[in-house]
UniProtKB/TrEMBL annotation:
GO terms for biological process: nucleobase-containing compound metabolic process. PROSITE patterns: HRDC (PS50967). This is Ribonuclease D. Residues 214-294 form the HRDC domain. GO terms for molecular function: 3'-5' exonuclease activity; nucleic acid binding; nucleotide binding. InterPro entries: 3'-5'_exonuclease_dom (IPR002562), Exo_C (IPR041605), HRDC-like_sf (IPR010997), HRDC_dom (IPR002121), HRDC_dom_sf (IPR044876), RNase_D-like (IPR051086), RNaseH-like_sf (IPR012337), RNaseH_sf (IPR036397). PANTHER family: RIBONUCLEASE D (PTHR47649). It holds the Pfam family HRDC.
Length: 407
């Protein structure tokens, strides 16, 4: 499919045209396909730079949320409709920023996962389920570009062109597989999830952090990360474009003692880095001057159990429980054609194995899973088997390979 069926609509950039679109979509019927394009890797944050909608009776709309940033009225007009999104959790935050929050949704990517389909990207799903090929060449484009090129807009419009048809086909498959109720629970959980809290110690996600072995150097990473983040926010640029992670790690490993020494490092020789050299070396100097008590801990605070690789020596009973439960959950996932992580999150299973309920029962395990956010269908499939594995933690032997043919 190379062109939208109804032609490429004009991008909405003014409030009067937006009012007409709101009226048209409010009067239309059925689910509404929704998508958003961001400028990840180019701009700071994850705001939407284009929002695409399609609904039977209203056609397709392309909205510029930079020109018309308040879309609360559109969100309200669509509040009674089911929203169809692909990988909904990726777009819900940027949609909420402009006032659009679904009460009900259908996630086509998650539907594909529940069906056990091998490839669940939008392009492969549309191809395997509907038989159409979509051109996906602009997914990583800088969508903050203005004006947006026509071929980019065509790509964006096609992303919602078949989304409702894909939803209908996947719903039918879910119903035939006996998984539609599971999907409804999953979709409701996504729609009801609170906005994600800011990550604690976000600097610990710096690529290459595993190379840093002491707390003073960790402090350098932290100070440089926050200095970079402040500048990236001011310039509305992706932090990696302001200072690469590799430059932060190299400064922490080298610990330059002067701005001149820092400027001699290959990663700081470029014009852009030399222009901000006082900022970068100031962050290193601040880290050097910190008293020991203010240095970051070597590992991030975590309220869960230690990594499972340490269990065999520290808690062999817990290691046995985890191995047995993993095997049983894997069997259940395979029997139902599910990815294991969609049946039960690894963290939920690890926590239960480390500290199982006492007294042990399927009901108690189910309550523990429920407290960790597991849905009822997941609990119904796994709680009894996991409780049995905890009670008798014997890992089943893998099936023997078939005997060689004598032919």
């Amino acid at each position: 499919m190379l062109e939208p069926r109804d032609g490429l609509p004009e991008v909405i950039t003014d409030s009067e045209t937006l009012k007409a679109v709101i009226a048209a979509f409010a009067a239309a019927t059925g689910p509404v396909a929704v998508d958003a394009e961001r400028a990840s890797g180019y701009r700071y944050g994850h705001r939407a730079y284009l929002i695409q909608l399609r609904r039977a009776g209203a056609g397709t709309a392309l909205i510029d949320p930079i020109a018309v940033p308040d879309l609360a009225a559109l969100g309200a007009a669509l509040s009674g409709a089911e929203w169809v999104l692909h990988a909904a959790s990726q777009d819900l935050a940027c949609l909420a920023e402009v006032g659009m929050r679904p009460a009900r949704l259908f996630d086509t990517e998650l539907a594909g996962r529940l069906l056990g389909l091998p490839r669940v990207g939008l392009g492969p799903l549309v191809d395997s389920v509907l038989g159409y090929a979509l051109e996906k060449g602009h997914s990583a484009a800088d969508w903050s570009t203005r004006p947006l090129p026509e071929d980019w807009l065509r790509y964006a419009a096609l992303d919602v062109e078949l989304l409702i048809e894909l939803r209908d086909a996947l719903e039918e498959r879910l119903r035939d597989a006996g998984k539609l109720a599971w999907a409804h629970e999953e979709f409701a959980a996504i729609a009801a999830a609170p906005q994600q809290e800011p990550r604690a110690d976000p600097w610990r996600r710096t690529s290459g952090l595993h190379r840093i072995r002491d707390r003073r150097r960790l402090a350098v990473v932290r100070q440089l990360w926050y200095a970079r983040d402040e500048l990236a926010r001011q310039r509305d640029l992706s932090p990696g474009r302001v200072l690469p992670d590799a430059a932060i790690i190299e400064a922490a490993l080298t610990m330059p003692t002067s701005a001149e020494a820092m400027s001699a490092m290959p990663v700081y020789r470029g014009r852009a880095q030399r222009r901000e050299l006082s900022r970068w070396f100031g962050a290193v100097a601040d880290a050097r001057a910190l008293p020991d008590k203010e240095l970051p801990p070597q590992t991030a605070p975590y309220d869960g159990p230690p990594p499972p690789r340490a269990w065999a020596t520290r808690q062999p009973d817990a290691a046995a429980r985890l191995a047995a439960a993993r095997a049983r959950v894997g069997e259940i996932a395979e029997a139902h054609g599910l990815p294991v992580e969609n049946l039960l999150t690894p963290d939920t299973l690890r926590r239960a194995a480390w500290q199982p309920p006492s007294p042990l029962s399927a009901e108690a395990v189910g309550e523990l899973f429920r407290a960790r956010g597991a849905r009822e269908w997941q609990i119904a499939l796994t709680a009894e088997a996991v409780a049995a594995a905890f009670a008798d933690p014997v890992v089943p032997e893998p099936p023997a390979p078939p005997a060689p043919s004598s032919a």
